[in-house]
Design goal:
heterodimer; A: five-stranded parallel β-sheet; B: mainly beta; five-stranded mixed β-sheet; 5 strands
């Protein structure tokens, strides 16, 4: 399968996964292995002095590409601050910009995301901005130097699927950057559908973490993303209003 | 003397270095980032930075997230 060229990397897998909400972080290596994912997100938080050695990094193999997010940022300034701190950890210069001040739907602030992208792209970050699927915001992110655009399918953690499908389709058509559907994907078929539409990749967390069997679910998502990408490359057949017979219409036994 | 660490007021010895403080707290030095008074301090400098009264320290690390 053709590789995904994105940021500074060439990836075999078009499934990006998160590290949040697992019943145990020790599941992460198996989830990575079974899903084939090569990119993983993490968040940045204050050290917990009651649990000093707790660190998700213990469970992430060295060869997996880290995509830290700026979760917690409520505006561009906070996102930039978090991004610089994340980069100072020395695990690369990829950053997912997540600027959210809506606590009910966790919908991102497109304007602040654009501002943060402009600043961080100038500082040499590989910027992956998370947005609602707004074409105007996406266009500004292209100009601002983003590596990709990451539109949500539905609000974070809802497992509601591709509710914004039509707007995602427009972004895929109009934006000359990889479109990575991020948030809301709930089932492997959602991820498969996003890939069939031409998305470059899918990023998901809750759909795996909330499954009773996250490891098998991770495997299912890996397969779904590959299937959807293959279907997209093969080209979907036409859709018809009425039936077009699959078996011949001549030579019937009863003629 | 008093400084603020991760939003909490704490007492530290006069003349303490940043590195000394981090080691005293048992922190895994290779898995944290440090911001002192809103500026990132790279690990190479930790032993050379002396903490002062009212310094604001943020000590962070990666956690699970989406």
């Amino acid at each position: 399968m053709e590789k995904l060229k994105i940021g500074t990397k060439e990836l075999d897998s078009r499934l990006f996964i998160g590290t949040g909400k697992y019943s145990s972080d020790s599941l992460i290596p198996e989830i990575l292995k079974k899903s084939g994912a090569q990119v993983i997100t993490v968040a940045l938080r204050r050290v917990d002095f009651q649990a000093i050695t707790d660190n998700v990094m213990h469970h992430i193999p060295q060869d997996v590409h880290l995509l830290p997010n700026t979760s917690g940022a409520r505006n561009a300034e906070e996102a930039v601050r978090i991004a610089r701190l994340a980069r100072a950890m020395g695990c690369g210069d990829w950053i997912k910009i997540e600027v959210i001040s809506d606590n009910k739907y966790l919908l991102p602030d497109g304007y602040e995301t654009i501002k943060a992208t402009e600043i961080l792209a100038q500082e040499g970050f590989q910027v992956f901005p998370y947005i609602s699927p707004d074409l105007m915001v996406a266009r500004k992110l292209v100009q601002a130097g983003a590596q990709a655009v990451m539109p949500l399918g539905a609000p974070i953690g809802t497992n509601r699927g591709l509710k914004t499908k039509e707007l995602i389709r427009i972004l895929i058509e109009e934006i000359p950057l990889p479109i990575i559907v991020d948030a809301g994907i709930g089932k492997p078929s959602d991820a498969c559908e996003a890939m069939e539409m031409g998305a470059a990749a899918c990023l998901l967390n809750t759909a795996i973490a909330s499954s009773p069997n996250p490891v098998i679910m991770a495997q299912a998502f890996g397969e779904a993303v590959r299937a959807g990408r293959k279907a997209y490359l093969a080209g979907l057949g036409g859709v018809s209003d009425s039936a077009l017979a699959s078996s011949p219409l001549t030579g019937f036994l009863h003629e | 003397m008093k400084i603020v660490v991760n939003g909490q007021v704490v007492e530290v010895t006069e003349g303490e270095t940043l590195c000394g403080y981090l080691l005293k707290k048992g922190l895994p030095l290779e898995r944290i980032v440090v911001e002192l008074n809103q500026e990132i301090v790279r690990s190479e400098k930790w032993a050379q930075v002396f903490l002062k009264e009212d310094d604001h320290l943020e000590i962070l690390r990666f956690v699970g997230g989406g």
